[in-house]
Amino acid sequence: MSHIGSCHCGKISFEVDGDFESVMECNCSHCSRKGYLLWFVPRSALHERIEGDVLSTYTFNKHEIKHHFCANCGCAPFGFGSHGGQEMAAINVRCLEDVDLTTIPRQAVDGRSL
Fold it and tell me: Would you state the CATH architecture of domain 2-109?
C-alpha cells in the first residue's frame, strides 16, 4: 500500500510504500516537543517531491537522525538515518493524509534515557 503525505504548505510532498500496524512515540526532548509519531521504513520506500530549496535539516544529541523540515512552514514530515547498516526513513505519520491517528497503537520509546 502507498501513503501520501506533505508538510503544511505543500512545498514538501511525498509518497511512502508500506503499511504500519503501530508507530513509535518517543519521549526525548525533541520528539515530545514536536509531537512526532514515527514509522520507520527503508529509505528506498520514500519518494519525496520538494519545491525549491525548502528542505532544512536539524540534528541533535548523537546526530543519528537527520530531521528534515520545511523552511517555509516549519512542518517536519520525515527524517533520515540508518539502522544495522540499512538506510532508513523516519516518517511522521501526522503528516500522512487520511490516517485516523486515534486508531494507531503507539509504542513508547524512552529516548529521554538514551
Answer: Beta Complex (2.170)
Q: What is the reported pLDDT for 5?
A: 98
Q: DSSP string of 13-24? A: EEEEES--S-EE
Closest CA to 91 of 30, 15, 27, 28: 15
Question: Mapping DSSP to helix (H, G, I), strand (E, B) and coil, where does residue 44 land?
Answer: helix
For residue 54, count CB atoms less than 10 angstroms from its CB and return exposed for 0-12, middle for 13-18, buried for 19 or more. middle
* Domain spans in the chain, listed from the N-terminal domain onward: 2-109
pTM exceeding 0.85: yes
Share of the chain above pLDDT 90, in %: 80
